[in-house]
Structures are given as C-alpha cells and as structure tokens.
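Milestone M4 deliverable, item 7.
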Amino acid sequence: MNKLLVVAIAAAALATSARAATPGFYSGRFPVTVTHSQSFNGLHCLVLFDDGTDRFPHSGSATLAGTESGEFQIIGHTLLVSLEVVGSGQEVATFAFSAPARDGMFGVGVWGFLQGLPIDSGRADFGRKGGC
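Output delivered:
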C-alpha cells in the first residue's frame, strides 16, 4: 500500500476519534418527534449538556424543553436519557429516551414513560442538533 495513503487513512482515523472524544460534542438542542404513544405524541426539544460528569466521556445533564431535568449518557454508540417527571399521582416518574448515537447525531429510537404498569412508549425520531 502506498505510504501516503496509509498516512492519510491514519490521520483521518485520529481526527475522527479525537472529535468523538471532545467534551461538548453532544451538547445542543435536538428536536425529537414522538409517535405511537398514548399521551406524548408530538415534537419536543431535548437539550443536552455534554460535560462528561456521569461516568462516561459523553454524558451530562439533560432537559426536555427546559422543564423536566435529568441526565444522559452515550454508552458505546447508544444514547440513554433519563428525565425526572411528576407522575399522575404526584409521585416521581421517568421519561426515558434511547437511540443509536454516532458522530453527534441520533438515529430512530424509543421514548418511554416509566411509572408502574402499563408503560406508555413510542417511537422517537431525532432531528439534527440546533433544530429547536
């Protein structure tokens, strides 16, 4: 293999891994559309602050439209978000999102409302960072 080609491939790999490990890489406002839910369908805005404070290099605080607050983590190539909300009986409940994560973007994932049974859930389609 040509030495120049090998150097170019190695440089591209290093640039990609350096970018992925950069704090703040997943910080931003992400539109997410929930469908197939019993009570949460529609467009929402997930705000992430990636500062590496929650056991993984890409992790930190999360809010949903500035109201519910919680945390997020990128584990491998998977987004996991947990937001504390008030349940129907005024008890603590959880909104959860999970989706594939790669290069600062999220694929199609799921949303769930966790408060006993039955669980309300739906499909979560993420838009590009800065879209809300």
